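Re-run requested by the PI after the first attempt was lost when the workstation crashed. Everything re-entered from the original request form. Ligand of interest: nicotinamide-adenine-dinucleotide.
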Amino acid sequence: MNLNAKAVEAMDIKLNGQVALVTGASSGIGAGVAEALAAAGAAVVVNYHSQAEPAQALVHRITDAGGRAIAAGADVGDEGEVERVFAQALDAFGRLDILVANSGLQRDAAFADMTLQQWNEVLQTNLTGQFLCARAAVRQFRRQGVCEGLSRAAGKIIHMSSVHEVIPWAGHVNYAASKGGVNLLMRSLAQEVAAERIRVNAIAPGAIATAINSEVVDDPQRREELLKLIPYGRVGEVEDVARAALWLASDASDYVVGTTLFIDGGMCLYPAFRDNG
Ligand code: NAD
């Protein structure tokens, strides 16, 4: 395995016996999170949308290292497909303890040029997809209740949000609206189910080097511009997010409920004001 195995070992977090479903796990942050959860001992359902091959390759990496994983295709914006992927998870591993609702996409356009299709596509995946997956997870967590010795919670949900749940983003209003929606979806749901020991939280990454922003990160000039927005002075790595997801999924964060954890190198600190505005 890669860096994750060592990093996970150093964190000393064990998820043995637990089952995790990670959506959009064939690439980027989702793949890193799936690998980290597997390295901590969880059985992992690697959801993918259209890229079966990298999802299968990830499953093989996990099983070759002695872990348990399956790949399961589904469009998170489709109710029937979401139900099917949860059924596959139960068939394969018998229970579910962790959902990482990670799938997301961008369809960028200046506001006046944005088509309804671009708007709908982003909302369907980034917000409706999070709703459908979280709802299926809550229903399953309720059926199971708290399983003593496995986890102090009946289940954990981690929504993948973005710094753009708080930072307005011209040219990306569909994306920012979807992530703003994720914030109140997450907090309202957390409030509703906390008494049942279901923990719901979110992660808001800043700029993490993945396919979603490769056009910016791989272009030296645009990368330079991007770095001006990051006080910590580097673009984030998938592992930065994977470690946080692992912690949020574990009992180490048992009293963390309804919180968004920003992993952004300080991007939300209004860096333009560093020199007194
Ligand atoms: P990515 O493009 O590598 O990953 C997105 C994943 O979502 C892909 O695997 C894709 O197949 C999947 N997906 C898209 N539509 C889907 C659908 N309908 N059903 C199921 N899966 C679908 O990019 P990433 O950076 O790894 O993004 C992961 C999440 O992190 C997204 O929600 C994104 O908004 C969020 N995020 C990323 C960054 C960043 O800088 N990379 C910053 C903030 C938030």
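Saved to the shared folder this time. The chain has one domain: 3-211+235-269.
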